[in-house]
Protein 1
Amino acid sequence: MLLADLFYPVNPLYLEFSVVLLGLALLVVEAFVPGCSKKALALIGVTGLLLILLATWLPWQPLDPSMASAHFYTWDALALFFKRFMIVMTILTMLMSLPFVPSIERSIPGEKSGSGVGEFFILPIFACASLMWLVSAVNFIMLFVSLECLSIVLYVAITYFRNDSKSLEAGTKYLILSALATGFLVYGIAWIFGTTGTMSINELSKAIAGLPLSSLTPLLFGIGLILVAFCFKIGAVPFQFWLPDVYQGAPTPITAFLSVASKAGGFVILLRLLEQLYTIPLLAKKMSVIVLALAVMTLLFGNLAAMAQSNMKRLLAYSSIAHTGYLLMAVVSIGAPLMGMAIQCYLAAYLLMTSLAFLVLLIVSQKLSNDELYSFQGLHQRSPFLACAMTIAMASLAGLPLTIGFIGKLFVFEVALQQRHYGLVVIGSISVVAGLYYYLKVVRAMYWQQPSEGAYPIVVSKKIGCLIGALAGGIVVLGIYPAPLFFLFK
Amino acid sequence: MAVFFIALGGPARFTALLATGLNLLLTLFLFARYDQLIGGWQYVREMAVLPQLRLNFSLGADGLSLTMLLLTTLVSFAAIWTAPKIERSPQLFYCCLLLISGGLVGAFSSIDLFFLYGFHEIALIPVFIMIGIWGSGDRQRAAWKATLYLGAGSFLVLLGIVALYLSGPAGLRSFDVRSLLEMAQSDLFHPASWIYLLLLAGLGTLVSLFPFHSWAPSTYSSAPPSTAMLHAGVLKKFGLYGLLRFVLPLFPEAVTQFSTLLLALLTCNILYIGYVTMAQRRLDWTLAYSSVMHMGTIFLGLASMNMMGLSGAGLFMFGHGLSIALLLALCGALKRRTTTLEYHELGGLAKLTPRLSLLFGFATMASLGLPGFTNFAGEVLIFFGATATAVIDHGSLPFIVATIAAVWGVVISSIYMLRAYRAVFFGALRETARCAAVQDLRPFEFLPASLLIVCLLVTGIFPKLLLKMLTLAFS
């Protein structure tokens, strides 16, 4: 009886608490159980997260509106989808870190071997918890706190390779620029609070509707500042400068996490905010012009700059900017019935294909200890399996049909056409063709060119092979039969 | 129908040959079993994919798609059979060929526009890889050019398809060709004419309609013969198939509205490219350009918009697919022997290689539309159809000009094909080392070519075999 009372109807806040507890427990185990293998630690973490992922399908009840926490935390379909999204990405990041252990050991100065590896597995769990809070945040304070939590974890994770100057440089860049963005965010929140008198995002439109026209300017100023902060998070032009350097310097699994989870978190908040602002016709017009301009710049810059890259991680960084552009294309079309689905679908596709690309990159670069494009030369002869997986990832990123990337692009272009953003669609089309070029550059390197230093084969361990196979299979199967994906959106 | 998916189990030469052979037999079986009394779509299999978008994975075949399927399986079989020994990663070679062929089979048997488009796109990366690895000449440039052109073209098609989907009434929107046509007939559905232009530009790029043709010649001359056979023979027909399948029936008004534009472009295809072809001094470039030129004639059949013109276009698509594949296969065989295709370095090969020259002669005759070959029946029907439209239109000038150009095109193509034939096989035997020790065709080259010729002759003498099916599709 007591047990049932405790768990049903359950307070969804327990989800995040259990993630944090999992992280803390792992830290304790790492510190106090001598001889505990790091791999076991990672596997416990992955299992725990999988259980929590399953638990999201439990019949959670929305928070009682009379509770104080209900003003901070929402439990809607969007939040639920992105909580699952974050957990999946964290699991993938941890699994990706497994073949990465040799690199970590090499780069961490320590007395005994394996020191510092455990934390590398545990850090993403905390980042995951803060992102799960972030996607539920409906209050500026909550938003700010969860964002800061995330940033602090990421500062540590990005500079994890203390011996590596690139990693340090990336961390410093991220620290300074992220701190700057946070400053913008707080300042913007202050302005909005000053004009509207509310901290709640959900009540924003109501508060704005009652405002006199004269307070529009300070309000817009505040909104602009907040937009700057989130454009930084999602890597929209002109706030993208940190991206290539940080992606290149950060440890590869963290780069993947940054590129997928952190970006998705930014988009959720952007959606929540814009949905409120779009209910005011005067603001809607202004906002759509701003977002349109952002989308156009991001699409063009990301795609055109990516064409010239010769470093794989930088190429993926610019491609990540380009994908932000496509997502912004969907955001501009706010109001189209399928807009939310388009963004969710695109991000889910992005998760699969980016993880796969980074995973293959990680394995290839481990062998040659660099991540230039030329280390992919002749990959087809060294490991047909990896080359095939990478081709699938690239085809999906380029948006070729029968891959999940195509379904995402289809949705995005559909909502954009539906809202009659024809100019944007033209820009989008140009970017798709440009994208085809630089993704195929990778395919060219793998198939056309001879390996640079003797064609010794790359052996992929069975477990990692399964993971790669699952990701590649997921991309193709969901590309042909995407219905399971849409089951998750409900 | 789902058996069409080729299992890529052990993709060596034998498996590939077996798979395409089985596919060919299966298609023949389906072709024979198609109930001509009922017509319409048969063997339909459906599976809901995305209920939110009313998207179904539906396969099926009607007269037009069965004809195209027959073409696909025939050419794939011949292309794989005629492939020489591959030095570098043969598995990948056959895998890519099978992917292209499988994608085409899927595209031609899809009823749903989404999958029709999707299956076609499978070919993009394999073609890129194949030209890059096993191509000849300036292959990297050719591969990039083809891929970017075709990628851009198909993206336009995609935009057109999405716009088409969105212009349906909400709630009834569908990608299904059948329900789109039903909606168009019951006046529920009025797609804007800019969508037609978008689709025409996109599909036109895929078919190498002037001025989007410049990818084609370099691709066909650089690609390995098997890829070029599949590409020129079948893949290019996809654009025409798309036009016949959904564009023309859905946009009858826009087609008439913009018919002058289309006629002007196709006249350029026939005359301009025709004269460009005559100026070529290499066999592979001549063939590549000739294939671009013949597309103009097919477009004329489409533009005529009547039963004769459309079924003529269908027949000519089939005939042209077989004959260009045949020519490219023989051209590849020739190149393996002489390592050059320049006319001034060749000549008199008929004495050394009687079998090759005999087959090439047949192929030449087929290509220039001699009676007895499928191409002749197709061309004649197209001319009749176009003339009929011109007459009904009270002598619309563009139609008359285009038809005259197309008839003149037959003369042009006779000139360059016969000249090519003469330059390579007749005249004095060049005493260069290249031509000295040339051997005749071996069975793996001889048999598939003969197979294609037999098919051309059979459908040329009895065009009714195919015409019955095609007229059913267009009625």
Protein 2
Amino acid sequence: MKKIYGSASEALDGLLTDGMLIAAGGFGLCGIPELLIDAIVESGVKDLTVASNNAGVDAFGLGKLLETRQIKKMMSSYVGENAEFMRQYLSGELELEFNPQGTLAERMRAAGHGIPGFYTKTGVGTVIAEGKEHKEFNGETYIMEEGIFADLSIVKAWKADESGNAIFRKTARNFNPPAAMCGKICVMEVEEIVPTGSLDPDCIHLPGIYVHRLIQGEHEKRIEQRTTRPRPAA
Amino acid sequence: MADVKKGWDRNQMAARAAQELEDGTYVNLGIGIPTLVPNFIPEGVTVTLQSENGMLGMGPFPYEGDEDPDLINAGKQTITEVPNTAYFDSATSFGMIRGGKIAMAILGAMEVDEKGDLANWMIPGKLVKGMGGAMDLVAGVGRVVVVMDHTNKHGESKLLKECTLPLTGQGVVDRVITNLGVLDVVEGGLKILECADGITEDDIKAATEATIIG
């Protein structure tokens, strides 16, 4: 089966439906599926629920899908960098479900592993615990969190071979593997598709079983907070 | 009103927090004053810094021109790696946090109360950005040390009998380092361990709403 598609739009053809749940990789603007987000904007699909740690910035990343009002609900841990997000949220146009960051990652990972729910101490005694099942284990209280079973995963890796075996680069890995695992179907964009057999099988971060469709493209890779220190004089 | 005694400045608070670091441990530092802590790591102590977006072994900011968009910390700032750096995904990162493998987190706070409850993620009626990884960290790591000013900008105690803001975690704080001194959360209240330069126990008591033990 051929996994490689010519463009992000081709790779998403037939997969997008109004009201669907999409899991997206990335942390801030690092390792986000830029090309697939652009193609979803073009598609015009609407009423999306998007599980993603952050919501992009204005006019970049998921911020683009917010501008076009294609997102109905976000499931995130931190959304502070996006003015349009805040405007829509405060006016009631956009639903927001806050998740502690590790709980969000584990909800994706769990679903990908066929685990519908798990218990965690994170959030016990906070608003996050309201309405959730509480259970004691060894004298400590835990709350139950449910797996996020997404209709579609959109993720970004550094390199993949033609069978979808993927490797990530530095901290751009972040939410991409758990997001890839939790979708019924996963579309991945990479900076480079390399011939099958050219990646060391011992060094694959995400096996191709999780990757159904694959595209290669140019990435802007925007930096959110450029911080440096002075170079010492030579 | 008499001059408000200031005690330690931000760098002195960070330096005191650095004394908490134990050799050979893995530590997570929050934003604000905790980011200054690496400048004061004591001689002979080696710690590995975790960045919860998926990295152990976080190095300093890069030299200008060396920034890498694929290498950022949890505050989305460009950083560098060190020789023992390892990268992993977010589920693994919070697995090591939730699993108690990270020895300590040093975090800022808006309020801490005498039961060790911590509030540092939201003020009702104000813009809510989210808790990020703060709830996971305080629930999971071995020890939580809070570094913050003793009072808010109105001069009111941030060490309370009971937190008024929505909680980040319940009964999670072990030690608080403020500009006035160092206090531990103990049975029944807070215990003063140290006073900052020029500060007395009475100064701390006068500036604290929480019950002071002993």
Protein 3
Amino acid sequence: MADPEIKSYEPHHESQSAAVTESRPVRAVLMAVAFAFLGVFLVLPLIVVFNEALAKGVGAYTEALASPDTRSAIRLTLLVAAISVPLNIVFGISAAWAIAKFEFKGKAFLTTLIDLPFSVSPVISGLVYVLLFGAQGLLGAWLKAHGIVILFAVPGIVLATVFVTFPFVARELIPLMQEQGNGDEEAALSLGANGWQTFWYVTLPNVKWGLLYGVLLCNARAMGEFGAVSVVSGHIRGLTNTMPLHVEILYNEYNAVGAFAVASLLAGLALVTLVLKTLLEMRYGAEIAATRGH
Amino acid sequence: MEVRVANVRKEFDRFPALHDVSLDIKSGELIALLGPSGSGKTTLLRLIAGLERPTKGAIFFGDEDASQKSIQERNVGFVFQHYALFRHMTVADNIGFGLKVRHGPSRPPAQEIRRRASELLDLVQLSGLEKRYPAQLSGGQRQRVALARAMAIEPKVLLLDEPFGALDAQVRRELRRWLRDIHDATGHTTVFVTHDQEEALELADRVVVMSQGRIEQVGTADEIYDTPNSPFVYGFIGESSSLPVKVENGDIWLADRPIGLSAPHAASGEAMLYFRPHDVELLDGCSGCIAGTVAASRRVADTRRVELEIGGERQRVEIELPVDHPAAQKSRVAFRPRRWKLFPAA
């Protein structure tokens, strides 16, 4: 149908015709394989994480979480997410707006570039910052002369996190905005709204569920990122250790309860993200369906 | 508000969509821009609205040059082809949007906005649907809401892009009459785009026929239909048949015989003869006529439309016969157009 508004947002259910339905034993085998795989690779590790974390009782668990270094790691992770997620919202909306609503030279290039963090190893992205901002790096001398510390400090961690998470919001919004076109914005402008009002009252409400979905994924990644952050953090306990880095340190020190306690928090975050994501998908499936792919 | 389009040219990436178009629209007039797709009619409408800027030329609202003004400053009511209703707002909020985004003293209080929205809903005969969302409305209802929303800002000019394009035939006819009533009641200068000639001829005070980025003819329905000024308009509006003919000393010849029509002022040489299939005179004998063999015949409502082969199989024309005319297959029919027009051969 030509009218975008009448378009049904129901997911498309294909009726199962007898011709393509597998026989009962085949179906059972397929399902068993899928569930076994999920069990071994996803559920079992989750159980192990919580099991190990609580191996010495709830007391040891809370004690491990209450240690100053752990608490500082949690604080740092929250801080990094609190800075990098809003930055990525701004960047994601700007990039999606530019790509979906305007024609300009280098558009294809920008679209490809946004995907770069997905295709490059996080370690490389961390190393890039070392080469840029490190003492021997391109800007190292200048930064030192001006007393600006980026590497092995919070700014470096934030930069690395922003780098690895920046596709999430943009990737959710671009297809959504492209599909919606300019019609609503033109209508708002013709009714006298200025650019900001158009964005606030029309564009943003039209993409809010896609945006929320992108923010959710972006946040999960920002809190869980290991590789890039590991390179630029310097692993200074109580100062530049994020939760994932702290897990590794504790584990290497044979502090299994501590390591798994922090890991259980991250696993909990993953579960919460998963639940929220599923809820969002159930309610606003088609609006975000266009953006699936990761 | 008078609208004057003066020598406007519009290019998209150097590809011209409109060539040197000029048009005067009188205050309170209802104008149709009619043409096939790609004729530039929507581009012209968007230029008047300010959704596009002309490459050359200017657009005047009254005496004021509007071409340098933004769409917000022009104060036009635009109804989009697919309505572009804000899907997350209720019907009342959609209609009130243009008032809500105003600044300072020109912005009415919330209660006044609600009152205006209800008033407009009454006008478009949708009272009581304030709280509905666009997704809960039928196509025709959305169309009415879109019109009410455009009228809420008290526009100088009302512009409609294919207003009935997405509706089925029944609703279309109803809304067409209704739009005429609204126009007569409110007196807005109104321009609408359509590719449906019936809609244009029935609804508009004047019709602007466009083709390939140019205005072919501007006139009332009668002028456009009775005195088309180009082969395109002849062919595009209503039914038409055409034959290649030759003019010699003011007489019109088809192949090697005169057909009894004279065009004293036409230059001698090749030409195309255009006429309406229903506007022909049937003849018994044939001295000075067009004669042909019936190749096919179709019953169309209360007439019979026959396709004639003229001069072997080289030319085919359509004419209309009374249903009871005894022209069976392969019988010969002789006729002469009553009203016709010659155009130079392409």
Protein 4
Amino acid sequence: MPETNVKATGAPVDYASFPDQRGRFGDYGGRYVAETLMEPIEELTAAYEKYRNDPGFIEEFESDLRDYVGRPTALYHAKRLSELYGAEIWLKREDLNHTGAHKINNALGQALLAKRMGKTRIIAETGAGQHGVATATVAARLGIECVVYMGADDIQRQAPNVFRMRLLGAKVVPVDSGTRTLKDALNEAMRDWVTNVDDTFYIIGTVAGPHPYPQMVRDFQSVIGREARAQMLEKTGELPDQVVACVGGGSNAMGIFHAFLADESVELHGSEAGGDGVETGRHAAPLTAGRPGVLHGNRTYLMEDENGQIIGTHSISAGLDYPGVGPEHSWLKDIGRVQYAAITDDQAMAAFHDTMRCEGIIPAIESAHAVAHARLLAEARGGQRILVNLSGRGDKDINTVAKLEGIEL
Amino acid sequence: MSETTKQPAGRLASLFERLKGENRAALIPYITAGDPDAQATVELMHAMVEGGADAIEVGVPFSDPMADGPVIQAAHERALKSGLGLRGVIDLVAEFRKRDSHTPVVLMGYQNPIEAIGVAAFVDKAAAAGVDGVLTVDLPPEEADELSAALGERGMSPIFLLAPTTSAARTREVATKGSGFVYYVSLKGVTGAANLDTDALASQVEGVREACALPVGVGFGIRDAETAGQVGRVADAVIVGSAIVRLIHEQASAAGGMNAQGLEAVRGFLAELRAAVETARH
């Protein structure tokens, strides 16, 4: 397809013009859904187009980000970690957001849109539970019914978040089909949406799904990069050499990358979940080791077998344990604007401990993948200024860490 | 060149032409290939034709059947345990064709298995096996140009869904892009849902006909002879899925596989549905 070759022509890429009218980022994206959802998706697209430029909507979103979520989040120079890794490391503190991760930026934006569209019921899928908690939080605040689909296995390993969602008044529905993880929760949420399409708004938690979700979620998350870019300039007078973010579906990464796409001097790096190592097959790194296909409403890189069946993934981090990735990442990989690498469970856990011991910050294990990636970049080149998106806090992960170390809490 | 490539959409078109003369709807059962096992699928296809099926929809197992309810999801999971993929499913159609050259066969599934093979290779293999149409659940007309063109070149029909949420404008567009028939999803929901409103259906189908000249098949929510008869009064085809998949699973689990008694039960159920469809308009 012609779009993917746009960089090869030598012309600068107008990143802001993507996706196109059909929801395409080059060959990726689109709308691969059953017919019943096509009109509702058109309706959502029209509503989003209307409100994204509506001063009243923008004002409400921005004031809620400030007064309810607690933005702007800090940009923090991690001096002891910098010393340890041999680079100048800056952390964008998305862990300081209300509910403890970047997920609330998007959940808030979509919930405000749902309210304006007159929808009376919100549904969501969740893996680690962070998006589920964020959605349950905004639904509680708006007084809207909320149902969260979660894989039965994830419910087992993320019990505290399940309880938080229930305390917030959400109904958490276990999903027993397939691999009983995030991808199956997404399938079940789609089934709910198709059944209750008249009154229900589906808040997808990442930059994937049928158009306009990849664009809409990116736009709601792009506040991360806009803030971080201005903060870097303010604190250092320069842009970073490298920006690093973990990639499951890829919403925190698109959120921080988007403001830097046109800054050609800034390298962008995405950290996929390497699990036990890509060579073992036990990982969740479709950009590193998958191939393009169609799942969950979009064309993108996937982990699949030779028959096109989606295969089970492995990561110590439930939030990265997903066989697909947002379509914009697939495009950015193909045109070479972002480089993606797989970070193993062990590398992520080492970075988790480094961040705690050096900085007194508990990173989410997801975010620890980005910290580990920064270490690799520092080792390879040294001395550079690296901006890391610390996408969430790791309090939710202490049970996982304790179990790894054979400790019973 | 095989017979199938010489006559575009031959079997489906002549079926609907013939049934117009008989003043009745076509009975189209759905089964998930590979459930309970691959050999049983071919035997079940023949048994369904003997019972009264006019055409057969063969479901291609997929790991993430987003538009399917619990009954068909479970069938996909059982079929996948044997490792059956899209190529294997097409081989089963070829096997079926050895003894049945007239019954139309439509593959129903999801886009990713087709992408994994590649559209060109898939279409070649399907045409050679005697497939008549392909319904890709997660491929709306907007995304279907490549597959539709390739199918058309080999005389196979791209079959699209229409839903209660589909506008008249979209229906007109789908009508120009599809062939064979359109599959009207009778309710908002997934396969196997139980709340079919047959009174509303008549006016819905009428609305589809105003914008679409293709035969209108109706599926989702048809579970027995009574509902099949009600739908057969207004639709050109009655499509029955979950009820048959459930029956096959009950028979196969009771007997540890598909035996003669199980095939007879399926044949008998199809005969009941066929009788209801035969008398629906008389």
